[in-house]
Amino acid sequence: MKIEKLVVASHNQGKIKEIRDMLKPLEITVLAAADLELPDVEETGTTFEENARLKAEGLSKLCGLPCLADDSGLCVDALGGRPGVYSARYAPDRNFDKGMEMLLGELSATGDKARKAHFSCVLAFAVPGSETKIFEGRVDGRIANEKHGSGGFGYDPLFIPDEGDGRSFGEFGKEEKNAISHRGRALKKFLDCLNN
Ligand code: IMP
């Protein structure tokens, strides 16, 4: 599929930065919703896919351009998959330092095994006049006992991926994170689709 311009349907700077970095090889113009003064879309869905579709299709209708939306979150086994689709709203006023403290508080009585968690990402790619395409990615790991590092965004300092060397995503370089992250994996599938 050939496109010249794409809008990242998000106002989350952490996500936009990671998506922009991974789309660099495409050599297309990548805009963010704010560049076109596009609004936030209300996330009324109960699944990552529903919310990703709402954001991509909602903004694509408004601006008439191909839109890529990411809905993602942290799912903790001991909390029955919470905060999941509500990960952004779990943090009071989107303050993720507070959100991480709350999470550590909820897990304080939990043994190491029950700290298993994963990040999930669903990307929805909406092109006016075409059917929306969906791409998924996931990374498994566990919740640390305390924050480590200050890289990345959101809950990164608390998430230790199984495939790593014991460091948290907050201690990963951006390329290292993109190579194994939920978002990186979903974006690889998206890139493969555009290149075929
Ligand atoms: P939403 O997709 O806009 O509902 O927001 C997803 C929320 O999940 C973000 O605001 C972060 O708190 C969290 N999240 C998603 N991906 C990541 C990640 O790669 N690192 C850390 N937190 C993430």
Concise description?
The chain has six helices and six strands, in the order βαβαβααβββαα.
Structure, described:
By secondary structure, this protein is of the alpha/beta class. The protein has helices at residues 13-23, 48-63, 87-90, 96-106, 174-180, 182-195; strands at 5-8, 29-32, 67-76, 116-126, 133-143, 159-161. The chain has one domain: Maf protein. It has six helices and six strands; from the N terminus they run E-H-E-H-E-H-H-E-E-E-H-H. A six-stranded mixed sheet has the order 2-1-3-4-5-6. Helix 1 links the parallel strand 1 (5-8) and strand 2. Helix 1 (13-23) packs across helix 6 (182-195) and helix 5 packs across helix 6. The N and C termini lie close together (7 Å). The site of inosinic acid has 18 residues, from strand 3 and helix 3. Inosinic acid is lined by residues 12, 43, 71-74, 87-88, 96, 119, 152-156, 169, 181, 183.
> Percent of residues in helical segments?
25-40%
What is the arithmetic mean of pLDDT?
95
User: What is the H-and-E element order?
Assistant: EHEHEHHEEEHH
CATH overall fold name: Maf protein
Q: Roughly what fraction of the amino acids lie in strands?
A: 15-25%
Number of strands: 6
